[in-house]
Here is the input.
Amino acid sequence: MKLFDHVKPFFSSLLLLVILNLIIKPLWVFGIDRQVQNVTGLEAYGNYFALLNLCMMMQFLLDLGITPYFNRKFSAEPNNVKMLASQAFTIKLLLSLLFTLVVMLVAFFTGVANWSLLGMLMVMQVLTTFLLLFRAYLSGAQQFNQDAWLSVTDKIFVIVATGWLLLWPGMSGGVTINRFVMIQIGGMVLSVGLAIFFLYRHRKDILMVRLNIDSGIILKSSLPFALNIFFMTALFRADGFMVERLVENGDYHAGVYASAFRLTDAVNMMGFLVAGFLLPYISRNWQNKAASELVLRVCLYFLLVPAIVIATAGWFLADEINNLLYHARAPEASVVIRILLLCLPALAVIQVYGTHLTATGHIKTFLGISAFFALLNISLNVFIIPAFGNEGAAWTAVATQSLFAAGVAYIAARKTKIRLPMTDAFLYLTLLLISILIFKWLIL
Here is the structure.
């Protein structure tokens, strides 16, 4: 009973997070983002998707590991929050300039032409990284309910505003990619403002600008977190940009790839949210190993069970999913949907055990694994994408992410002495077999 009382606040806040995101995120992904692609077309959306992935790969420059470092540090040392937060805020202002410069250089040397869209996407990413910092403070202070609401505020705004454009195009002028991005910027401004309001209610001196010698120490300490974010993002998102750059009619093929990637990313959103809660909890409570192992195992079940079921469903029902969701109904999209959804079980394992490695101070070990598999993924795609296109990129993602997940789980168990019960593997294999039989029966 004492163990349950210890973990109850975590699970109650996690339940609120799940409920909010199960309501809002499907509306965003399938009601708004999907429909924007249907209205604007594969080429226009493919260009947006490629440039968004470029900005997200370079987003580590906006943070350099400050947010996860701050989240873990404050969770373990809450008395130092004023100094840590003010320095993190100041450093992020300077890093925003660095991010802008580097993205523009990469875009110039890779032949990007749509500079106005790229500029808006850069603004959106700068606002996103500040929101993540503010949310890290709130979750580090164990203010999980406020963090849960901030995880959906921007999406609620985008759903309402873009939904109006989609439902009444005659009155509003309709949706374009540029309008869609401007609405997302508006939603992010609203969320950042709300986050600042929550922060000032908790600590009025939290956002002071301060830069001194300690800031260099923070940057040095957070650098492994930054590099890990970069390699993880490259592993998960470089293929979307590389497809657009490496094949003929790249915008179209990137749009097709986005059709499948959207589904994988939508399911994996829950993994990111769980990881955001898991990191500060494990950082503060790892000494209570029984409670921490219970939280880890429940989170793994929570993510892995639906991942297995959805991946199996996608393999058998890809054509139906493609025809239901997309007006273009590109036949190659069904193939990529079928393959990319196989990444879901691996992503669930990575979110739980990767977060566990970070929270327990084994970030350099995690960095080494993520760097190896990110470089392997990019190296393979350089040769595979020109030859096999979207299908080759999708199979490369499945292979590298699955091997990455196995490595992360093994290293986490070895470094932190947590148990990986064989009964769990048996249950997952049984669930996979049952899912295969069910969905195979459905299509017969």
Remarks:
- DSSP finds 16 helices and no strands in the chain.
- The first helix runs from residue 2 to 40.
